[in-house]
Amino acid sequence: MAYRMFDHGRFVEFRLLGIVRGVDLPGDDWYRRIVQSGRLLLDATDVQDITTDVLWLAGFARSVQSLGPFRTAVVAPSPLVFGTFRQALAYRGELPHPAPVEFFTAREPAIDWLLA
């Protein structure tokens, strides 16, 4: 899975690129930074397709969000990507702490919500 990570100070950005296959993931240092900042922007604007299993996506989301509470804004202009990520969230299950997640089709409103 192609991606880039950015530390914007007030939030961390995980920008997905191309095809989401569900393999190559960021390391523990990035996960700690996400929890430390308390905010994650998951930008899927440049995702062309998702070939990984929805349950894998749900497990990944659960494993990262179980590390600590943080807000997540998901940007997914594509209806396919938007719907797949929403489905993965539904399968994520309960977490030991609140982990608000909101979905957006544009980046600017996502960042506004994330920083509010």
Question: What is the element layout, followed by pairings?
Answer:
Elements: E1 2-7, E2 12-20, H1 28-37, E3 39-50, H2 54-65, E4 71-75, H3 79-91, E5 101-104, H4 107-115
Parallel strand pairs: 2-3, 3-4, 4-5
Antiparallel strand pairs: 1-2
- Label the CATH architecture: 2-Layer Sandwich
Sequence stretches where pLDDT stays below 50 over 5 or more residues = none
How much is the radius of gyration in Å?
13 Å
Strand sequence of the main sheet, in spatial order? 1-2-3-4-5
Number of domains: 1
- Global outline: globular
The number of distinct β-strands equals: 5
Distance between the termini: 30 Å
> What's the total helix number?
4
Describe the structure.
- This protein has a single domain, classed as 2-Layer Sandwich (Transcription Regulator spoIIAA).
- The protein has helices spanning 28-37, 54-65, 79-91, 107-115, and strands at 2-7, 12-20, 39-50, 71-75, 101-104.
- The protein has a 5-stranded mixed β-sheet with strand order 1-2-3-4-5, with helices on both faces.
- Helices cover 38% and strands 31% of the residues.
- A hairpin with a 4-residue loop joins strand 1 (2-7) and strand 2 (12-20).
- It has 116 residues and is α/β, with parallel strands linked by helices.
- This is STAS/SEC14 domain-containing protein.
